[in-house]
Specification:
The protein is of the alpha+beta class. The protein has one domain. Helix content is about 30%, strand content about 20%. It contains three helices and two strands. A two-stranded antiparallel sheet has the order 1-2. Strand 1 and strand 2 form a beta hairpin. Helix 2 packs across helix 3. The chain is globular. The model has no long low-confidence stretch (mean pLDDT about 75).
Amino acid sequence: MNCQPIILTGSGDIKFDTEGQLLEPVSNPQLSSISSVSDADNSFASNATGSIQKMNEIMSGMGVGASWHNDSFASDGINYFIMQATNSSRLLDPDLPVPTFEDAVRPLQEVYSKLFAI
């Protein structure tokens, strides 16, 4: 599976307490799409490509002991969050047939769109 990021930038109104905890979801969001990763560099503290690459490394478990496995235990971030989002271990169950692309793409999109918000 190869993913092409969709980068949205924008602003909105937020309410938070004195400890920095978000009190309610963003209201009045004003979002716009960015056509290429290189165009997004102005919206990132570092650069967009580096930020996306780092997120992929974190989510895939690279360098933190994640490995190929033949069980339903999610030892890496992305599979753990997919399992939480779908409330199912279907994509990890070695006793079931290999998931199709269609089985995997929607949960993966959902997880990435929620976790990789800056």
